[in-house]
Amino acid sequence: MEKTRLPLHHCHVMKTDLIINRLYMFFLGTALLALFYYRTATLSHIIKTRDSPLVPHLLVFISELLFTFLWVLHQAYRWRPVTRTVYPDRLPGDDKFPPIDVFICTADPSKEPPLGVMNTVISAMALDYPPDKLAVYLSDDGGSYVTLHAVREAWSFSKWWLPFCRKYELKTRCPGAYFSAEESRDDRFISCSDFLAEEKKIEIKYNEFKDSLEKNSVNASSSVSRDHAPIIEVMNDAVDSSQQEMPILAYVAREKRPSRPHHFKAGALNALIRVSAVISNAPYILVLDCDHYCNDPTSARQAMCYYLDPEISPKLAFVQFPQKFHNISVHDLYDGRMNCYWRRWLGFDGLGGPSIAGCNLYLKREALYGTKNIKNDIDLNHLKKSFGSSNELIRSISKNYKPRLSKDRKLTDAQAKEVEHLASCDYDGRSEWGKMGSWPNADFTVKVLCVLYGRGRMSTLQIMCYTANTFEPIHVVPFYVLAAVPQICLIHGTLLYPKVSDPFFIVFAFVFFASQLKHVQEVMSYGDSLMSFVYEFRMWTMRSASSYLYASLGAVLDKIGLHDAHFTLTNKAGDDKQAMLYQEGRYDFQASPVLIAPICSLYILNVVSFVVGIARIVQTKSGGEMFIQAFIPLFGVIVNYQLFEGMVLRKDRGRIAPSVSVLSAAIATFVLCFASLVLIY
């Protein structure tokens, strides 16, 4: 009789959250219907009587409609939140595991310090996975000798580090993280003299490794090239017999020419897919950012709990892991943990799986190629249209293909020529690899395609999730309207909301407080503090007023041909003074005035409207009529107190510059005067 196979994973529906979410949807949805009834009745009355300015009422109504549209879409995330449990101990033996390729991309050692990048590389090599089934590829889009030297040094150090990790089953396998935190040590070995002696020796080796990288990183920016031939080097050491216990480590610098489009990171990943196909050709690919190390060495085994399940594996394209950040302070001023997104992922997962988060995921190579249903007798020329002119790459599509890398891991002349051809800058252009569109619009394009072509393949709720992601930027419009129009109307005594004595006052109050309390409930049920709610809300307002605004404008201008979208590499080099402010719980406002001025202008406008509005209310004794309009700026001013602190109270280097405060006051004055003419008169 066949033995019952234990499940490798289990999905748990979060029933309490599910019930709360659906009750919230029902009651708030009902309140929104009542709110819109009030708005339509009010607009109808104004159109007939002309006893109040029409434009502000119309703008507020449209903004409420847009926010409601986005709210409806986002309820799909709340419909069926789930969590998952995996059982790696139930997996078959290591000999049954499929190979995994790891892709890591870097571009400029002056902005992405080699030590941090190499820590990511080493942590990937140290995954708790059979080393003979693991290959790590570092794409260096700068073609920098600094990065190549760092990879060679990382290879040498890893010969010490990996055996140490395996011997003592370390949980933290990023050496930088391990040696910087006492809690990284396993309690089992704290009093073990052999362990402590070996750890000390490894730490000395790591310090030597760091010193070597630091010495070679002088003038790192000058080592970056945008015009170079392809460089591919598979690390090897012919005199070291321990090499067979090491994963493959390959350095790949694809060809770059100023006259050829390179598609930024997307192009780098495409080159890695092709090059890796003829070196290791693993059926699964782990994608990591260069500053995201593998904090859990069992992640590969966890992913295999899904991929080795014959029931779901054929329908599975990727397994996504969340991003966690090691340098988050207790304050988390900038919402760096991004828990608002990961909370959504719990609901997205319950509808068939989340979308790709950009990195930290195990991809199925077959899903990338789209070759699941390919026929054996397909015409070779047809495949070349899709995969280019490389016969070796086309052969690698077959499940029976085995790469021919020698035991000493030295590429033959023919192999070296082949991988250089696959990493050339014109390979994309002669095949469908090159038909990728513009990188800044790629994410939007993918989401739109999911919305347009998802019908019949995805559930309605899944489509709603993708649509919510796609249309997220439009909240900038209602945000600016509701951050300015009611405030300006308060100054002029124009009533936009029901009086306290009006039954519809309860409707508006319920919509506001129910929304905020739901946010608080989600934050705290996820395990965060009440202050996390405040930090998330603050960052939402600041991003809406600045980065989301400019991103939306840039996308629109790019579409109509008035602006060329471009990619700027994030600087990952640390700043001690910024870090100190962050750890002390103080915002650093030393950003461009273009980013700071919009939110400061809105803040000043809200302060002025509240002060003038309260004076008008006291003078006219109209507190019951204007209560909601006075509450709106008061709420914004209190929640975003950090802006008042930055403009008025703080004197340190992280404050808002006086020149920015003056500029913001001038913008607020102009907006108030101009908008008053348009909206009121």
Automatic annotation (TrEMBL):
Where is this protein primarily located?
membrane
Q: Does the keyword Cell wall biogenesis/degradation apply?
A: yes
Q: Name one GO biological process term.
A: cellulose biosynthetic process
* Molecular functions per Gene Ontology: cellulose synthase (UDP-forming) activity
* Annotated transmembrane regions: 21-38, 58-77, 477-497, 503-520, 594-614, 626-644, 656-680
Q: Write out the coiled-coil annotation as residue ranges.
A: none
Which positions are annotated as binding Mn(2+)? Answer: 265, 289
Protein's name according to its UniProt entry:
Cellulose synthase-like protein G1
Source organism per entry reads: Sesamum radiatum
